[in-house]
């Protein structure tokens, strides 16, 4: 983790496939690296294309137009790379707006370390149930000391479990009254102890009162953009009850702003917090209670050529950067490949 801090806002490059042993390999490595930097250092055109849901950029770039520091990405441009977003850019649109026809690319953005949750035991009481969880924070199999903020969401119920300090693994108990309907969702937001801007998160759905959670996305499509959450129910019998915004330091209930064309909009607060915002929506599908969630920015995200598609390319290079989104640090890897020579 010390290395993470030292490398913040800098770039490193790694080779995916061996280069051709001539000058072309060196030229490709340098050229593709400049393309990767261009994508992250330029805003694209128009500069606010991320915020406008119907806008397809003329020129592709992910930089935040209002940021003073380099390698600061726009939260909405990043979210529009996600297939979960209603307003996602297709790879064809990205490829066309990049205007470099002889290269293919892939972009991945994810936290600098990972957070894992396991339900290890359940204890039934007379009027309540206690769940024992194990929470781990790791990078490449190595434990990451972190501060953890935990929330639990269930029917008409949001509980802030406070901050817990962890050296990489911690066990904790969550007690929920049997009067509270399930299923339930445990949200964990983690901050590295060595740098509070290095963050991670996880949302873990679990059964409560014998109500098992459905797969994520079964009931709603959640699309955050321009500090507005658009909720599109997948069934006419769906009714929303509560929508929450959860960050490391803040929790709030979102207010509905509009409702039209079978979609409902909620305002996402602009919080000064170096943290992703986990957005949680609860409701009913006929007689079944459900919980859905997403995160703003919508990461982890991956768009572009897959590893299996890259085999037709002679040179594929990966350029890894530490980037900032809403004052928090993430890992961004850009793969660039060219045709066989």
Write up what this structure looks like:
This protein is mainly β and 341 residues long. It has a domain of 150 residues. It contains 4 helices and 21 strands. The strands form 5 sheets. It has a 5-stranded antiparallel β-sheet. Strands 3, 4, 5 and 8 form a 4-stranded antiparallel β-sheet that branches. Strand 13 and strand 14 form a beta hairpin. The two termini are 40 Å apart.
Low-confidence stretches: 1-24
- Please tell me how large the radius of gyration is: 21 Å
Principal-axes shape call: globular
Straight-line distance between termini: 40 Å
Average pLDDT value?
89
Query: How many helical stretches?
Result: 4
Instruction: Report the sheet with the most strands, covering strand number, pairing sense and barrel closure.
Output: 5 strands, antiparallel
Assess the beta-strand content as a share of residues. Answer: over 45%
- Spatial order of the strands forming the largest sheet: 1-20-21-2-19
What structural category do the secondary elements indicate? mainly beta
Order of helices and strands: HEHHHEEEEEEEEEEEEEEEEEEEE
């Amino acid at each position: 983790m010390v290395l993470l801090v030292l490398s913040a806002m800098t770039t490193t490059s790694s080779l995916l496939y061996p280069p051709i042993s001539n000058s072309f390999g060196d030229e490709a490595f340098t050229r593709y690296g400049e393309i990767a930097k261009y994508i992250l250092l330029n805003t694209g055109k128009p500069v606010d294309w991320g915020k406008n849901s119907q806008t397809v950029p003329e020129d592709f770039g992910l930089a935040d137009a209002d940021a003073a520091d380099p390698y600061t990405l726009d939260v909405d441009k990043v979210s529009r790379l996600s297939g979960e977003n209603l307003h996602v850019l297709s790879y064809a649109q990205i490829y066309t707006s990049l205007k470099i026809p002889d290269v293919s690319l892939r972009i991945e953005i994810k936290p600098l370390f990972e957070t894992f949750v396991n339900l290890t035991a359940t204890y039934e009481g007379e009027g309540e149930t206690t769940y024992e969880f194990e929470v781990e924070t790791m990078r490449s199999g190595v434990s990451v000391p972190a501060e953890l903020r935990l929330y639990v969401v269930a029917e008409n119920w949001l509980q802030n479990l406070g901050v817990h300090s962890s050296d990489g693994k911690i066990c904790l108990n969550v007690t929920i009254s049997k009067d509270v309907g399930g299923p339930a969702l445990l949200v964990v937001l983690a901050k590295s102890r060595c740098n509070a801007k290095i963050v991670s998160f996880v949302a873990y759905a679990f059964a409560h009162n014998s109500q098992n959670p459905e797969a994520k996305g079964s009931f709603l499509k959640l699309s955050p953009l321009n500090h507005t959450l658009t909720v599109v129910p997948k069934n006419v019998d769906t009714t929303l009850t509560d929508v929450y915004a959860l960050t490391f330091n803040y929790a709030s209930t979102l207010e509905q702003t509009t409702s039209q064309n079978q979609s409902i909009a909620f305002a996402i607060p602009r919080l000064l917090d170096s943290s992703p915002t986990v957005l949680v929506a609860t409701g009913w599908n006929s007689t079944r209670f459900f919980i859905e969630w997403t995160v703003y920015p919508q990461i982890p995200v991956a768009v572009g050529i897959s590893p299996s598609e890259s085999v037709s390319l002679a040179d594929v290079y990966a350029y890894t950067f530490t980037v900032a989104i809403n004052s928090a640090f993430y890992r961004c890897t850009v793969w660039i490949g060219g045709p066989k020579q």
